[in-house]
Amino acid sequence: MLRRRPQKRESGAPRWMVTFSDMVTLILVFFILLFSMSVVDAEKFRAIAESFQQRNIFEYLPSAIPFDGLDKNTDESPKNPFDDGNFGGQGEVDMDELVKEVQSFLEANQLTDVISATKDDRGVVLVLQERILFETGEAEIISEAKPFLDKVGSLLKAIPNTVEVEGHTDSRPISNYRYPSNWELSGARASSVIRYIAGNHQLEQSRFIATGYGETRPVVPNTSEENLQLNRRVVIIISDPTTPDEDAFNF
Fold it and tell me: What's the start-to-end Cα distance of the chain, in Å?
């Protein structure tokens, strides 16, 4: 009688375990590589940063995009009227030339009916009517005023002169939670002009003086609507460096 031979059992782990272990090993190596690439070498990073600081690569490498702009010998860009003025160096500003430049700008932009530029013993005096700067009874600068104030800021950035900004109102009283009287309103308006010019053109605040006169210094009697408009104004005084400090803002 024939007997069936018993099947020979292989010793050790099943074959599928080998494939599984290889797969686990590969996944482990993969994540180790990801981790190693995510760690920044501080020394290498510092060396790269220093190489960029030592060489301004953008000054040496030409642009890959051709530029068909203006020829170097032509100047067709819009000009700032203040750029061409010969105002002199530090401490020798030509005040006559300065006021001419401002007047030219006003005429070119049809602003002579709301802004005037003159020169007296104090320096260059710019008188801005309320309607070019603020809404009635407010101290927030309106958008129509910003182009001219930006021009003034560009001018002041090129010269060292000190500046006083005066706020003036008409005789009509005001009383609200923000401005209890014309004193507060006129002072707030002067401060708003200084904040805009100094803040947008990185000018030293120590160069500026803000003064609120309320209704105490009218230029004409407050007897008509036209006269009331003339009295509601902001005055920017660019001091004459040759005027003694104690007399620069007195009149």
Answer: 141
Phi-psi map region of 88: left, alpha, beta (phi>0 left; psi -120 to 50 alpha):
left
Query: Which amino acid, residue 77?
Result: S
User: What percent of the chain clears pLDDT 70, i.e. is strictly above it?
Assistant: 67
pLDDT of 81 reads 41
Residues 16-64: tens digit of each pLDDT: 666 777 788 888 888 887 777 666 566 666 665 665 555 443 443 444 4
Tens digits of residue pLDDT in 131-147: 999 999 999 999 999 99
Measure the CA–CA gap between 87 and 102, rounded to whole angstroms. 12
Helix and strand numbers (H, E) in the chain are: 8, 5
From CA 80, how far away is CA 115, in angstroms rounded? 18
Other Cβ atoms within 10 Å of 205 Cβ, number: 10
Single-letter code of the amino acid located at 35: F
Across the chain, the runs of DSSP E, i.e. the strands, are 115-120, 123-129, 163-168, 208-212, 233-239
| Pick from 100, 186, 114: nearest CA to 149 | 114
Query: Which residue has 């760690």 as its token pair?
Result: 39
Say how far apart CA 214 and CA 169 lie, in whole Å: 5
**How many angstroms from the chain centroid is the CA of residue 108?**
25
Looking at this protein, which amino acid is placed at residue 25? T
Which CATH superfamily includes the segment(s) 95-247? OmpA-like domain (3.30.1330.60)
- Residues contacting 193, CB < 8 A, separation 6+: 133, 141, 149, 165, 234, 236
